[in-house]
Amino acid sequence: MGAARGFTAATPTGPIAPTWTRPTPTLAAAAEPMTDPEAQPAAEPILPEAPEQLSGASLASAGPGPYFAPPAAPEPLAPLPPVASPDGRVELTGTTLLVRGHLYLLRELERADVMHVRWLLWYLLGALGLAAVMIAFLENWLKTGPAMLGMTLTTLLLIYGHRGTNRLRLFRLGREVVNVALPGETAPWQRLTAEINRRIFRVHDHAAREAAALLAAADEATRLAAQAAQAAQAIAEAAQEQPGNTGPIAPDEV
User: Which of 69, 128, 129, 204 has the fewest CB atoms found within 10 Å of its own CB?
Assistant: First the structure.
């Protein structure tokens, strides 16, 4: 018993099997990346940059780049043959319009139109007079001779008022409309008015192309002036940075 009591169990000296521990939810959440889209912080939206408004000086400072060639000045308008009405009341050339002795430039006109109108006063007088004469004849207030004469005159007034005239309207830029009465059939005046409008649009289109060419030339001159000023400033700064120079160099010495 004493030997048994004094005997101690020997500790094993072989390899010890590894022990695995289950990770806690807190440690696992800290180790894994955030995959929940609701838990991730919202990304800042990327807003497109507003285009920069460039002027002549900024174009020059931006350095060489592709520039659109300014449009060339349009050629002068080719002369067109004059057109006149059969009665000579209206004469049309490539740049002017003569109506009953009044001369208008096509550049000051916006457009023209023509329409048939009745002489309302003569139309009403003829209709009312014819009705009055017929009523008086039916009531035996007039004899046959005077009644026939009255009916003839009032019928002529009615026909004249119904025939009417052609009203030509000239729309001027920034001014009142001009109304001109033109006799005859409406169809020939409509063809002449269409030619007037065509030549008016032709003159305005040429004037617009001339203005665009002048504006492009002014922009090109501004850009070249800005580039020249920038080049002169760069030369002056380079001269000041050279050793031994105490001041700017005169333009003649560059």
Answer: 69
SS3 call for 88:
coil
Please provide residue 35's backbone torsions phi and psi, each rounded to the nearest 5 degrees: -110, -5
Asked if 79 and 89 count as a contact pair (C-beta separation under 8 A), the reply is no
Q: Which residues contact 123 (CB under 8 A, 6 or more apart)?
A: 158, 161, 162, 164
The string of pLDDT tens digits covering residues 81-95 is 999 988 889 999 989
Element (H, E) at 38: none
Strand partners, 83: 92
The span from the CA of 137 to the CA of 145, in Å, is: 10
Residue range 239-243: mean pLDDT, rounded: 76
How many angstroms separate the CA atoms of 25 and 32, rounded? 11
Helix (H/G/I), strand (E/B), else coil: 46: coil
* Beta strands per DSSP E along 63-164: 83-84, 90-92, 96-99, 102-105, 109-117
List, for residues 186-210, the tens digit of each pLDDT value.
Answer: 899 999 999 999 999 999 998 888 8
d(CA 236, CA 229): 11
